[in-house]
């Protein structure tokens, strides 16, 4: 192993990336765990917002529909970086105001929670559009039939709408998950220790910029490729009983 | 006329009044006295944002055409590199790519005396070439994937007809294949260009002074937090709106008088 690294001229890189200090490998992995935590949280929060948003857009009153249209348009037109800063300051301000009113001192907000709140709201706007499209793709007759059977709305959603729309929603949601993992990198700019910031700190203190940035890129790429495989499975599961996309197109 | 009527529904008028009230409150209650001081800088930043956006989109799209072509019909020794390029670009965060280029190349170049003494060195010492390079590559990566789908979606019969007319391969590509592919993906391209606009503030992290960097400077200088950010968001909304209108005009011109939907063309 050592000889192989020597031949490839990677001894130095392997030393820098080793998991035990003085290597920085552990820092990168810790950053990756933080990133994934935020991505999971934000994706979940986005799904919840998206489900309510999609129902609001499809079945809500005119005012709700207009408000949701403004929400999705603004979030999708303003850079995530700007939204992250605005929502971050608004969030911390609101919590601190609430804390002082309740008689507590200033509260320090953990980076993970702030990241999930900020990216979750951004993801929610995209998820609203994805899920709205998916619900619209479900044949209306199926939902009407369920209504005729006298299903209450929540049961209808659980038993008919969500299973039937899954196969339409999964490709869009897979895309959203990838956006969520990549958007966590933006939290580096507000000083949260996720993978990109850990990488930059490691790179800056060892001056080995290429080694660390390429290693972090490889980590992100592994996450992306693995997610691709997982979502492929999920899509297959969601489309069970239906012809595969390629056959359907023929 | 129709849009006006759609706006004049009672609940929309009420909503507009509420928003007007919010805007008025913002104008009166928040601090805007910093605007005259920073206006020239902000205009410069706006200009730089637009300039970077246009340059990187044009260069990126020119790169995306061969990338898409290689993936759609190229031999394996072109298709595999093109596909891996797109996968890597789409699979890693743009911020990481920008930092890799700026800090990585930026620390590598000074080690070579040949580069230091070359005529390019004054440019390579600045940040914007790296910003343009990173954003161009990112746009090319995403659009390469889009163009792959676009090239393979053009109906085979069209190309066969062109071949039957005895068109040379390049003429066929220029007259039939490329225009149809671009027309099919214009709506997608509009969306991707807005995504590219949203990516431009990232270059502020490598000291390129564009719109976002100006707002950060205002925040750092005056400790005013919300006002510059809100104004910044409004600016980006306006640029995104302009991009949408521009692409709508392209689309209208692209379909010409024929008004065919892509589904009709394909059958």
Automatic annotation (TrEMBL), chain A:
Domain ABC transmembrane type-1: 32-231
Membrane topology per record: Multi-pass membrane protein
Domain of life: Bacteria
Source organism of the structure: Salinihabitans flavidus
GO CC terms, sorted: ATP-binding cassette (ABC) transporter complex
UniProt name for this protein: Amino acid ABC transporter membrane protein 1, PAAT family
Keyword Transport: yes
Keyword Oxidoreductase attributed: no
Transmembrane regions listed in the UniProt entry: 36-55, 67-89, 109-127, 160-180, 208-231
Keywords attached to this entry: Cell inner membrane, Cell membrane, Membrane, Transmembrane, Transmembrane helix, Transport
Family label: Belongs to the binding-protein-dependent transport system permease family. HisMQ subfamily.
Cellular compartments annotated: Cell inner membrane; Cell membrane
A single MF term (Gene Ontology): transmembrane transporter activity
UniProtKB/TrEMBL annotation, chain B:
ABC transmembrane type-1 domain boundaries: 46-247
Compartment annotation: Cell inner membrane; Cell membrane
TM stretches of this protein: 12-30, 50-73, 94-115, 229-247
Membrane protein topology class: Multi-pass membrane protein
An annotated GO cellular component: ATP-binding cassette (ABC) transporter complex
Gene Ontology molecular function terms on file: transmembrane transporter activity
Pfam families, sorted: BPD_transp_1
InterPro entries tied to this protein: AA_ABC_transptr_permease_3TM, ArtM/GltK/GlnP/TcyL/YhdX-like, MetI-like, MetI-like_sf
SUPFAM superfamilies linked to this entry: MetI-like
PROSITE patterns found in the cross-reference section: ABC_TM1
Main location group: membrane
GO BP annotation list: amino acid transport
Keywords: Cell inner membrane, Cell membrane, Membrane, Transmembrane, Transmembrane helix, Transport
Superkingdom of the source species: Bacteria
UniProt record similarity statement: Belongs to the binding-protein-dependent transport system permease family. HisMQ subfamily.
NCBIfam families: HEQRo_perm_3TM
Name of the molecule in the record: Amino acid ABC transporter membrane protein 2, PAAT family
């Amino acid at each position: 192993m050592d000889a192989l690294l020597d031949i490839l001229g990677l001894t130095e890189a392997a030393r820098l990336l080793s998991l035990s200090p003085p290597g920085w490998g552990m820092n990168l992995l810790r950053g990756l765990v933080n990133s994934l935590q935020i991505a999971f949280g934000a994706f979940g929060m986005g799904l919840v917002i998206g489900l309510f948003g999609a129902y609001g857009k499809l079945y809500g009153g005119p005012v709700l529909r207009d408000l949701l249209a403004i929400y999705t348009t603004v979030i999708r037109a303003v850079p995530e970086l700007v939204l992250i800063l605005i929502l971050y300051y608004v969030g911390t301000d609101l919590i601190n105001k609430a804390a002082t009113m309740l008689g507590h001192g200033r509260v320090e907000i953990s980076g993970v929670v702030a990241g999930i709140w900020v990216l979750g709201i951004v993801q929610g706007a995209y998820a609203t559009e994805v899920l709205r499209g998916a619900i619209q793709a479900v044949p209306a007759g199926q939902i009407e039939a369920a209504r005729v059977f006298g299903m209450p709305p929540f049961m209808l959603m659980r038993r008919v709408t969500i299973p039937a729309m899954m196969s339409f929603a999964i490709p869009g949601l897979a895309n959203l998950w990838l956006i969520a993992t990549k958007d966590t990198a933006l939290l580096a700019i507000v000083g949260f220790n996720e993978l990109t910031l850990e990488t930059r700190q490691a790179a800056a203190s060892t001056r080995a910029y290429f080694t660390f940035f390429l290693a972090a890129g490889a980590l992100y790429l592994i996450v992306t490729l693995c997610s691709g495989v997982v979502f492929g499975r999920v899509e297959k599961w969601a489309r069970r009983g239906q012809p595969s996309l390629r056959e359907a197109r023929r | 006329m129709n849009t006006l009527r759609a706006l004049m529904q009672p609940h929309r008028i009420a909503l507009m009044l509420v928003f007007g009230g919010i805007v008025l409150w913002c104008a009166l209650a928040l601090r805007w006295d910093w605007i005259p001081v920073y206006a020239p800088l902000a205009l410069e930043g706006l200009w730089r944002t637009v300039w970077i956006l246009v340059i990187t989109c044009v260069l990126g799209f020119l790169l995306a055409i061969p990338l898409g072509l290689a993936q759609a019909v190229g031999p394996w020794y072109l298709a595999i590199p093109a596909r891996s390029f797109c996968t890597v670009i789409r699979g890693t965060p743009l911020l990481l790519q920008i930092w890799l280029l700026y800090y990585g190349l930026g620390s590598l170049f000074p080690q070579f005396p040949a580069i230091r003494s070359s005529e390019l060195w004054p440019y390579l010492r600045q940040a914007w070439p790296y910003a343009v390079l990173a954003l161009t590559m990112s746009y090319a990566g995403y659009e390469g994937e889009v163009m792959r789908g676009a090239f393979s979606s053009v109906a085979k019969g069209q190309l066969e007809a062109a071949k039957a007319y005895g068109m040379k391969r390049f003429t066929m590509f220029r007259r039939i294949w490329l225009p149809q592919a671009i027309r099919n993906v214009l709506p997608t391209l509009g969306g991707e260009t807005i995504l590219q606009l949203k990516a431009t503030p990232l270059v502020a992290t490598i000291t390129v002074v564009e719109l976002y960097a100006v707002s950060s400077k205002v925040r750092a200088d005056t400790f005013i937090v919300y006002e510059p950010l809100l104004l910044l968001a409004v600016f980006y909304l306006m640029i995104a709106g302009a991009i949408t209108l521009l692409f709508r005009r392209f689309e209208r011109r692209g379909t010409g008088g024929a008004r065919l939907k892509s589904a009709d063309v394909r059958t």
